[in-house]
Amino acid sequence: MRQLNSFMFLTLNGFYQGPETNDISWHRHEGEEAGFSADNLKNDENILVFGRVTYEMMVSWWPTPAALEALPEVAKGMNRSGKIVFSNTLVKAEWENTVLIKGDAVAEMQKLKGRPGKNMTILGSGTLVTELSNAGLIDTYQLMIDPVAIGKGKTLFEGLEEDLNLELIDTRTFKSGTILATYKPI
What we know:
Blueprint: E1 4-10, E2 15-17, H1 31-42, E3 46-51, H2 52-59, H3 65-70, H4 72-80, E4 83-86, E5 98-101, H5 105-114, E6 119-123, H6 126-134, E7 140-145, E8 154-155, E9 166-173, E10 179-185
């Protein structure tokens, strides 16, 4: 069975986005952190998964000349990777190597996990993460915790229906003070 992983940026006080939709301006994505992202995208072992809001943010940046100039290896990897976007409102997904899936995200993800193929990683997409967590479909959670607290924002797991007990299985500390913590459900 294919694995479904979640990768999320977080503030110290548990926000994955600031008060405005898609506000991750507080996140440190340079130097070592950008290298980590580039390395993960080189191996092409995962299909990237998005909800509509995160997909729209990603497609507005990664295919642009500015992204290629700012973070060339990450941009190349993001554009080259296979992608799935879950949305009932998008008409089409035009980003290279993207498949649009409409309908019940939980039922569709159950089907995807049961088919042979590459593992999948949800990037951001807090609402989708919560929905798939409620269904017990996420196998690991990677939380990149930035050493910053913000006053307002949206917390991870808003709308979680039951407690989600996790076991820490790995950590990595970056020179910037950012910590990557990897958990699995227990």
